[in-house]
Amino acid sequence: MDPKTTHPDTIAAQALGWIDERTRAVTPPIHLSSTYLRDPDNQYRSGRVYARADNPAFDQAEAVLCALEGGAQAMLFASGMASATAVFLALSPGDHVLAPKVMYWSLRNWLMNFATQWGLQVELIDMIDPAAVQAAIQPGKTKLVWIETPANPLWTVTDIAATAAIARQAGAAVAVDSTVATPLLTRPLELGADIVMHAATKYLNGHTDLIAGALVTREDSELWQRIRKVRAQIGGTLGSFEAWLLLRGMRTLHLRVRAACASAQRIAEHFNGHPLVAEVLYPGLTQCHGHAVAARQMRGGFGGMLSIRARGGEAAAIGVAAHTQIWKRATSLGGTESLIEHRASVEGAGTPAPADLLRLSAGIEDVSDLIADLEQALGRAHA
Ligand SMILES: Cc1ncc(COP(=O)(O)O)c(C=O)c1O
Predict the structure, then answer these.
(1) Is the pTM of this model over 0.85?
(2) Which residues line ligand 1 (CB under 6 A)?
(3) C-alpha span between 60 and 14 (Å, rounded)
(4) What is the pLDDT of residues 62-101, one digit of tens each?
């Protein structure tokens, strides 16, 4: 199957059309070996030495993801955090990096604590404003610009092409956390990014039953080779069974993402202007900041993530979550089941999440059930 001429849906459904030539199996075996035989003349011609560095169990999932993103190489990691932190750890103490003020909370925490203590100069900026990027970037000193779009938990949208153009001029690499967009809705490498990151725990796997991360690079580069070393040395390597599960999950990525996008759009439109809802945050709503950029940058939908701000403040928001029956009260996103979360409770002090904000991950259930459940929960929270 030629990934350049094959539709992403076909790439995903057939996992690139791969079969095991030896057994004619249509799905791959699970390779569990932790080590590989050395040749009698002391060489490793197979290219494999030890499974902390590399593992044939990754090959298929990495190839599928690479094809979906239009990249040169991909790497699987033990978690989304392991993949994201590997990019920063491949830099050097003293390097300056730009990251968004609004981004996935645990990574922001790691950047402001561990990475800063380790010596990175981390500057958080308003990444959705290219002028702010231009003002903060230090040519020759800024080594990385980190983007998340749409970004947790306000679903703000960053213009990848505009930001990458500024970064390129300053000699900085660009990495994009594209977990929420998925490779089906946005292809950051085509827009000028160097590396795409996914919490594969979310949409790529899609079944809320594994933790995994992934990176894809536009080209083999010095930075990419340093990241490969970080994975091998620190050992943020995915397990073989998890890699197999991830590949299985990716086979239905297109169906799940399309369903989640359609539901999120319907839910956003339904609760937009609702008397018990102060605001709906979703890039698919024309009044939302970033809608125009999202309409240019995202194809086929605006993602399955949205937030609603409950009228009545924090107590009302927590009350809504308490009364949902179909929406599950849990953190995470991108699974088949819809999740609801009072985000400020998870993020704690310093969070940019307003106290009345509920983060919603639309699953693939019937959308009228999801809307009815939120309606009754809003009603009961305000009763
Ligand atoms: C946007 C985003 N990036 C990164 C991560 C981290 O992924 P993981 O939980 O697999 O480490 C998450 C997890 O929620 C996320 O939502």
Answers:
(1) yes
(2) 79-81, 84, 104, 107, 148, 152, 177, 179-180, 199, 201, 211, 213, 332-333
(3) 11
(4) 999 999 999 999 999 999 999 999 999 999 999 999 999 9
